[in-house]
Write the structure tokens for this entry.
Amino acid sequence: MDILIQVLTTAIAPSTAAFALAAIGLNFHFGLTGLLNMGHAGFMLLGMYGFAISLREGWPIWLAVLVGLAAAALFALLLGWPTLKLRGDYLAIVTIAAAEMVRFLGRSQSLAELTGASTGIRGSDFKAPFEELSPFADSMVEIGPFAMHGTRSSSWWLTLVTWGLVGVFALVFWRLSKSPWGRVLKGIREDEDAVRSLGKNVYSYKMQALVIGGVIGALAGMLWAIGNSVQPDAMGRPTTFWIWTLLLLGGAATVFGPVLGAILFWSGLTLIKALASAFIPSDVLAPTSLEPFSLVLVGVALMFLVVFRPQGVLGNKKELAFNG
């Protein structure tokens, strides 16, 4: 029963919802448009910095959110301007490099007073305005078998906000993907030249998708930071690869694929760690090896998924036609 509670707690955790939201943003890039954005963590990190620094300086929370979103939008424009006229591989190279530039810039000692350098920004420096909005008690609150704090860090308040935003942006993705705008993006994904021959401005549509997905990624970064802190190395290359994993696991270009992928990935990882800890003696598998062991097993499962169901759990093979 304890293992089941651990798995279910992970499934509804704010961090799981934040990654689901980030995967929805990537779904606009890759699922709809076929853009190979390999630096999605950079959008998340910029959103975190813009949000946290603004709140730390005493700005209202709504303005802090706008600053984080604006930083991500500007980042998308700067990335897209030289690369979106090229084919997808170039975008992949540029985005992964740009995301690393953002991370190393955040770690720079020359900006330590602003970003905190490698130690980042402590949660206590910026979380208070969000926590003050909580309708829950400032104490532990039990709902059924689940117990979380009412307001602080990974709280019921943050859980409600994160999953609410996941629902909102899943609905936004569904509506836009069914709209004429979304159908143009799918056409670009499948045959960019054919869409261009119809008189559509392919570059403009790609830029719109890149900005929208990046802004959603920045919002996901803000939510993740509220539950943790702002730490640049937490948003490195592995974070982007995890988001890609969630998207492909659930199914690219589907409405609920990113959400299901996030729940399955993090819950599966928690389940494997709990089972390994319970049934494998510590002299066979050291506690410090549980995380790598769990990731290996999850990786093997994903390999089988790619072989036998490459479209993901909810995906459709018809959605796998991507323009190279």
